[in-house]
Structures are given as structure tokens and as C-alpha cells.
Amino acid sequence: MATGQTDPRRRETVLAATLDLIADEGVAGVSHRKIAARAGVPLGSMTYHFTGIDDLLREAFTGFAAHIVAVFERHLAPARTPEQAREAVTTLIHAVAEGPRRDLVLTQELYTLAARRPEYRTLTAAWMRSSRRLLEQHFSAPAARRLDALIEGLTLHGALDDTPPDREVTRTAVALITAGP
């Protein structure tokens, strides 16, 4: 790369480094200096690309929420029947609970911010609406809302419980929630 040119992917590199740092140290451990070091970029590029740490956190978590919605979509899109959709939700719950610990930590860090700050509640509300819209392609709106809560709860339990629920417990819970009015 010639002198004076910047990496066209620097912004994305910084956002990825931000999420990695949050996953390792929590939001409380985030600073421009730590992110720049992790991303391998000059400290000055932090303020060039982002107006401040809040701007950086919002953008990083917005990208993370989009990633999780894409996970929902990958699991739910192939389902053509209600039974396939139920099985897709069951698989989704276990895939997320047994998936990268990084995603679980980032989700909880975002929820903690959302519990304290309205701008992050707005972000999590948009994330939940997107997830429910995907579920509503297969289930009623009330069932989709209940499923969304079940997914969050069982994912957390599956990741943190010494004896996480097995697939049959999950399958039964999904079936009960989606069994009509």
C-alpha cells in the first residue's frame, strides 16, 4: 500500500476488533487505545472513523445484531411446513447455545447496555422485531413473540447451565408454544 493511503477496510477492522475486545474484557474494558492496538491501526483513525466511543459501540453492536438476525434467517428460511419450522427453531436454539461463546458474551453485554441506556434499548428492540418478523413467516405473531423469549431463555440456559436442556425438551417447548391458540 502506498504511503498516505489508508486501508479501505479499516472501519470494518476497527468494528471487529471492538467486538473482540468486548467479548474478552466487557464493555467496561473498551477504550480507543485498546481497540486501536487490537485492530493494528493508528489511534488517530479511531476519531477519524467514529465520533466517539458511543458511536463505535453502537455501530459494532448494530453489526452484531445483524449477524444474529442472519443466523435466525439461515435456520428458518428453508422451513416450508410448520413442523419444519418447529424443528428449525429447535436447531437454532441449540446452535446458538452451543455456538461461539463470543456471541453469548456479546449478547449479554448488549443487554446490559440496553438495560441502562435508551439508545441501546432501541437497538435491541429493532433486533427483536427483526427476529420476530422471521418467526412470523411460520407462526402467529403471539407465538412468534413467545418463541423469541423462549429462544433467548433456552439459549442462555443451554450455554450456562451445568445440565442444559436436551433437544427433546427444547422440541417439546417449541411445540407447546406453537400449538395453536
Q: Segments where pLDDT lies below 50 for 5+ residues?
A: none
Structural shape: elongated
Measured distance between first and last alpha carbons: 62 Å
User: What is the succession of H and E elements?
Assistant: HHHHHHHHH
- The name CATH uses for the topology of the largest domain is Tetracycline Repressor, domain 2
User: Can you tell me the CATH architecture of the largest domain?
Assistant: Orthogonal Bundle
Supply the CATH class of the largest domain. Answer: Mainly Alpha
Average pLDDT across residues?
91
Instruction: State the major sheet.
Output: none
Q: Please report which band the strand proportion falls in: under 5%, 5-15%, 15-25%, 25-35%, 35-45% or over 45%.
A: under 5%
Description:
The chain is built from nine helices and no strands. With 181 residues, it is mostly helical. The protein has two domains: 1-50, Arc Repressor Mutant, subunit A; 59-177, Tetracycline Repressor, domain 2. Helix 1 packs across helix 4 and helix 4 runs parallel beside helix 7 (118-136). The longest helix has 24 residues, at 53-76. The chain is elongated and about 55 Å long. The mean pLDDT is 91.
Quickly list its features:
single chain; 181 residues; mainly alpha; Arc Repressor Mutant, subunit A; Tetracycline Repressor, domain 2; 9 helices; elongated
What is the element layout, followed by pairings?
Layout: H1 10-25, H2 32-39, H3 44-49, H4 53-76, H5 82-97, H6 101-116, H7 118-136, H8 141-160, H9 167-177
Summarize the structure.
It holds the Pfam family TetR_N. Keywords: DNA-binding, Transcription, Transcription regulation. By secondary structure, this protein is mainly α.
